[in-house]
User: What shape does this take?
Amino acid sequence: MEFDLNKKYCYYFKQISDIPRGSRNEKAISDYVVEFAKKHNYRYIQDDVYNVIVYRPASKGYEDSEPIILQAHMDMVCEKNKDVEHDFEKDPLDLYVEDGWLKARGTTLGADDGQGVAYMLAVLDDENIEAPALECAFTVMEEIGLFGAIALKKEYFSAKRYINLDSGGEIETAVTSSGGARALIKKDLHYEDNDRPSYRLEIRGLKGGHSASCIHLELGNAIILAARALEELRTQFDDIRIADFNGGMKFNAIPREADITFSTDADPEKLMKAAEQIFRNISQELQYSDEGFNGKIVPTDILPKVVTQKETADILKFMYVMPNGFQHKSMAIEGLTVASLNAGVIFIENGQLVINDLIRSAISSHGDIMIHQLETLCPLFGFRFEVHDRYYGWDYTKDSKMRQIMTQVLKERGIDLKERATHGGLECGIFKGLIPDLDIITLGPISKGEHTPDERLDLASFDRAYGDLLEVLKRSK
Assistant: This one.
C-alpha cells in the first residue's frame, strides 16, 4: 500500500505534516485552513484561540437536508525518540511507509488527529461530493484539555447532526464520553519550630493508570492511602505534625507514589508497630487489584519546621473523608463508569498545600453533585475550592439516525458496527453541551501508538474509512 498523493486526503495529510502544530502552537495550521477557505470561496470563522469553522453549501439535491457538522482537532502530541534531532516548533514531519503503515521517522505522526483534518480538507476540495450543507470545525488544544472546543460558541452552528473524525477504528463508533472538571483544593499553612523525632511515610509499588480507563479497577491511590495511613496513626499518636506532602505526576493519572514527612514524640517502636498493622490492612484490601503495594515509615533528620497540630489534623481528616475514585456505573452499558474523581497530584509550595483533583461524569448532574460535595466539605477543614476548565459529557442515547446510517454502510461491507463507550473525555461532549439534541457518530481509520514515536496509520484503512465517510454523507439526505 502506497501513500498516494493523488488521493486528496493523502495530499492534505502531507500538507499539514509540513506545518508544526503542537498544542498551543496552532496559528500556522489555523492560518493554512483560513487560506484554504479563501481560495475555495468558502465562508469561514477564525476565532480568538485559532479554531476555524468552514462552511460548505449543500450539494445539488440536498438543499432541504439538515446540515452536518464535521469536526477534527488540528493539534498533535509532540514526542520523539531521544536520539532524534527534530524541532517541533519549525521542522516538518519526516513521513515514510513501512508494510502498509504510514509513520514519521523518530517522532509522533500526528494521525491523531491529522487524519480527520485531511478528510475534511479533501471533502471541502471536492465539488462532486454529494452531501448536505457542512459546517467543518477545525479545533485546537484538544490534546491538553479540549480547550479549543470549550471556546466554541453555539451561534457558529445550525446543524443538529455531527460526525467527529477523531475517534474511529474504522469498524466502531463512540456512543458516549465523560465530561470533566479540574478542581484545585488549597489550604494555607502555618509553621512552627520543631525538635521532635522526624519520619517519612512512603507509599510505593502501586500500578497506577489512566483515571478514565482504570478508575473502576479498585487500584490504590498513593495520595489517598498516604493520608489515610497517617490519619490512622494520628488517632493513636495525636501530636503528629506534617512538614511536607507530595505525590502523583499528572492530574489525570492515578498516582503510584506519595511521601509525607512528619514529626512526632511517639515511642518509635509503638509507632512502627502501628504503621505495620495499617499497611498490612491496606495490603489485604488491595491483594487482588494492586498486589505490589508497599508502605513503610523511615526515620529522617529532624525537620526544622512543621505545620501546626490543628492544621495537620484538618489536612488528614479532610483527605480521610473526601470522595475519591469510582462513584457510579452505567446501567445501560455493561462495565462503563459514568462518574468518578481522581486526586492526581498533591504538593506543598510557598506555604500552601494544593490538591489537583479531576472530576469526570457523562451525566451533568453527577458532576454537579461531586463538585458540590467538595464545595461543602472544603470549608469545614479550612480548604478553598476552585473549579477550572469544566466541560460537559455525552450520555448514551439508544436511538440515533446517524448511527443507523453508519451501521447500514458498514453492513454492506460485511461488517457489524461496534459501539464503543468511554469514561474519557471527547470533544463530542463539548458539542453535545452546545447543542443538546445533537445526533453524534464518530468515524475514522485504524491507527496505533498514538502519543508515541511508534504512532502509525493503516493506509488501507485510511482509504476505506474515507469511503465510508462519503457514503454516510451521501445517505444523510
The mean pLDDT is 95.
